[in-house]
Amino acid sequence: xxxxxxxxxxxxxxxxxxxxxxxxxxxxxxxxxxxxxxxxxxxxxxxxxxxxxxxxxxxxxxxxxxxxxxxxxxxxxxxxxxxxxxxxxxxxxxxxxxxxxxxxxxxxxxxxxxxxxxxxxxxxxxxxxxxxxxxxxxxxxxxxxxxxxxxxxxxxxxxxxxxxxxxxxxxxxxxxxxxxxxxxxxxxxxxxxxxxxxxxxxxxxxxxxxxxxxxxxxxxxxxxxxxxxxxxxxxxxxxxxxxxxxxxxxxxxxxxxxxxxxxxxxxxxxxxxxxxxxxxxxxxxxxxxxxxxxxxxxxxxxxxxxxxxxxxxxxxxxxxxxxxxxxxxxxxxxxxxxxxxxxxxxxxxxxxxxxxxxxxxxxxxxxxxxxxxxxxxxxxxxxxxxxxxxxxxxxxxxxxxxxxxxxxxxxxxxxxxxxxxxxxxxxxxxxxxxxxxxxxxxxxxxxxxxxxxxxxxxxxxxxxxxxxxxxxxxxxxxxxxxxxxxxxxxxxxxxxxxxxxxxxxxxxxxxxx
Length: 513
Prior knowledge:
- The protein is of the alpha+beta class.
- It has 14 helices and 26 strands.
- The protein has helices spanning about 10-15, 20-30, 55-65, 110-125, 170-175, 175-180, 230-245, 280-285, 290-300, 325-340, 360-370, 385-390, 420-430, 470-485, and strands at about 5, 35-40, 40-45, 85-90, 100-105, 135-140, 150-155, 160, 165-170, 190-195, 200-205, 210, 220-230, 250-260, 265, 275-280, 305-310, 310-315, 375, 385, 415, 435-450, 450-465, 490, 505-510, 510.
- The strands form 7 sheets. Strands 4, 5, 6, 7, 10, 11, 12, 13, 14 and 15 form a 10-stranded mixed β-sheet that branches. Strands 1-3-2 form a 3-stranded antiparallel β-sheet. A 3-stranded antiparallel β-sheet has the order 16-18-17.
- It is extended and about 90 Å long.
């Protein structure tokens, strides 16, 4: 989980009221977050990796204001006017296929807010964006951008990179600290993803912006690009950023993204997501009575606009909440808002007594029998390969085996059909240990019946000693069979794994087991 450090005076400024340090920490913990440090000037908060909206002071104080019932509005709206167009070339699809964008106007930045904005994009891209592989964000001074804007993959060329040095794209990857750190996101390519306008390169994606479009404290209008590998997540990131800029006092304008000449994708979409949850479902899962009169207030506390529709509660999911997927996520938020300290455990009454299931009873009985005869229990992997399972056991390969699709390693290609090969491997790897060696395993093996995989439990035992022989292991088998079955027979059998005359089959009630 990422940690974020916020200046407390800045937090109080955004909240709009002064809090005591103790109350601030208390509210944060009630929100389900962790307070890692709380000194005179700053507070360090542990944020869930699936809550990127809390990584910056604006998003965090938004959540805090909601939780303290200071906010009155929960809706976010972008302007109707299209502020820019981005034309996507065909080569981009080979390297980094998707882009969304937005324009924020009327920002009032100072040194502190600019630092937090840049820190947020860095933290977001490193955590939720998987170190820019999944998502990367670029911020550009709109006054320095000269349309039309293009996003594509281009041959190696020069631009003035952030910091003022003129470099080729390939040199950024080889020399610049950002290129060395994030160059693997685009791999070994002959063309480089970049955003350009009429004056040249705005950014080498997702590595480094140009010096020309650098944002400063004097920047009031910003063009934002979000690029990545999954269209849904870059679209939701645009929604999150739009909400953040609106909370910062800016007006947000959409951008048309053209993947073809004819049809535009408008970003940010800011689509209204609605999840309806029966109140009874939430109450049963949380374990307490909430009531229709209380649930709307609790929803507002977590930033939802909500309404009662019949016996259900309709939740309007905020555009900045990338973590809300279904009603389970809603229920968790309502539980946090209600307060875990008020949810009391209740006794579970049942007329059905508990007990140990049959398989566990069998496992314990076998373990007691085998350890009583001096055997040590082993636990081996279920996955193996044809060489160990068949070839080294001198058995033909069974076509009806459970195989691993698209196996990444030749050592793991199938599910085992017997515990014996792995037990023999155990003996082989301990050949220098003292004798006698006695090992057993009672666990799952796999087969196929009627084209479906079948699991069953097998018992295997091996013994290595200077004078170990067939009679020794037969005596062990009979001791186990006597305890488990009583009536059984041991009859001659042939197998490629054994010397003739030293192999037998076990029959119980006429069935070979």
